[in-house]
Amino acid sequence: MEFLLRLPFLSWLFGGNQTKDDSRQAARNRLKSALVGDRCSVAPGMSDSIRKEMLDVLARYMDVDSQTLNLRLQPEGEGMRWTADIQVVSVHRQAHLPEQALMDPSERKKRPKRSLRGTRWRRSQEDQPSVEEKSA
Amino acid sequence: MSNMGKVIVVTSGKGGVGKTTCTANLGSGLAQAGKTVVLVDTDIGLRNLDLVLGLENRIVFDLVDVIDGKCRSFRQALIRDKRFENLQVLASAQSRDKDAVKPEQMKALCQELKGAFDYVLLDCPAGIEMGFKNAIAGADEAIVVTNPEVSAVRDADRIVGLLEAADINPIRLLLNRFKPNVAQRGQMLSVADVQEILNLELIGMVPEDERVVHSSNKGEPAVLDPKSKAGLAYRQVVQRLIDPGAAAWAPEQPGLMSKIRRMFSVNLGSQAN
Q: Do the chains contact at B186 and A15, CB–CB below 8 Å?
């Protein structure tokens, strides 16, 4: 019976479920990526607040050059890919102990202020060799 | 007065997707189901709801008259529907613009209306400017009307963001002008696609139906037309509005051709085995 499906008219009549002209997928994919872009550009200050929060989190573990933070959102396949990259100046010694960095919030709030004054400053200049050792 | 009604805004972002038709049909359907309903046309300057319902010759006072206090109370401006006495319409002003009303005034009016009716349906203008802000100011819930087209879905997404920001909940989706046959051929977004992309609860799917235009031409809502497929779909949406647990939208009804196709393909399959 299957040879019948090879006849153009009959295949249209009986087997027409697989159409080549599938504009539905195109509509789906284009809409999805357009909406991600829309939502990001529309939400007021969203990328600014992501940027700020990321820098706050990173500051608990390492010194980073905040000017080099690069956030990107691109369509990839059916979904989206969000990427971030940043230049690291040095990694804190405490980075070995994430539980310390994630201590209770009241502690956490005090720490960055201290490190801003002295510790972090020194580290970025003196401790650079140790960072290179780690990355090597 | 402990039993306050619900204020539901019917909105879409994009124009021409069927907001006014939906408002007219859902309002008539709710009235048919015995609820007291008031429909408010908030599209100031582009009055249409009255025409779709065949009430265009009965307007004395309009929305702006009520807001400006030109009539004694909102009741004086309400137009009673021809078919249901528990359905009233508040027409919009034709000669004014969207700035004639402020969001706080709309909010106060909605508050008054929901004390007197089970359902207050607001027909929202297209766009996201002043008219939209006025329309959603007093709304508790929203129905977002969209078509299975990229432009309509994108605008609906934008609208949903604004509704969420305004703390309107629930926001439900009504997919209008759906063509089951075209979707089945993969040439149109399916109901599931639109629902997935917008990530909203679906309150109904209304198929494209020529009879809707005939109904509008005559000033009679399609929901009252027993032969109309769209009318049937609207009746189901009304059921879901009254009882959220009611069965979901009508199953996608494939056309006659695809029914025959399916019948034959099953037969072919069984013979091949």
A: no
Q: What is the pLDDT of residue A47?
A: 77
Nearest C-alpha neighbor of B122 from the set B44, B7, B242, B202: B7
**Considering the domain boundaries, does residue B108 fall inside one?**
yes
Q: Domain coordinates of chain A in residue numbers?
A: 26-127
Handedness of CA B115, B116, B120, B124 (dihedral sign): negative
Phi and psi based region of residue B13 (left: phi greater than 0; alpha: psi -120 to 50; beta: remaining): left
For tokens 């789906």, what's the residue?
A28
What is the residue type of B68?
Answer: D
Strands of the B79-80 sheet, one edge to the other: B79-80, B87-90, B37-41, B119-123, B6-11, B141-146, B171-178, B201-207
B49 within domain boundaries: yes
d(CA B157, CA B161): 6
A1–B268 C-beta distance less than 8 A:
yes
Q: Residue A3's pLDDT band (boundaries 50, 70, 90)? A: low
Using a CB–CB cut-off of 8 Å, the residues of B that contact A are: 150, 153-154, 157-158, 161, 183-190, 193, 197, 257, 260-261, 264-265, 268, 271-272
**A contacts of B162 (beta carbons < 8 Å):** none
Residue B232 scores a pLDDT above 90? yes
Q: Say if B226 falls within a structural domain.
A: yes
Number of structural domains found in chain B: 1
Distance, C-alpha B215 to centroid of its chain? 16
Under 8 Å between Cβ of B173 and B192: no
Which of A15-24, A82-91, B64-73: highest mean pLDDT?
A: B64-73
Shortest Cα distance, chain B CAs vs residue A57, angstroms: 27
**Cα–Cα distance for residue pair A78/A101, rounded to 1 Å:** 36
CATH number, domain with residue B237:
3.40.50.300
Any domain includes B1: no
Measure the CA–CA gap between B258 and B264, rounded to whole angstroms: 10
Global pTM reads: 0.74
Range of the domain at B95: 6-272
Q: Does residue B224 have a pLDDT over 50?
A: yes
Cβ density class B85-123: b for 16+ within 10 Å, e for less:
ebbbbbbbbeebebebbeeebbbebbebbbebbbbbbbb
Q: How far is CA A58 from CA A45, A85, A90, A125, in A?
A: 20, 12, 11, 18
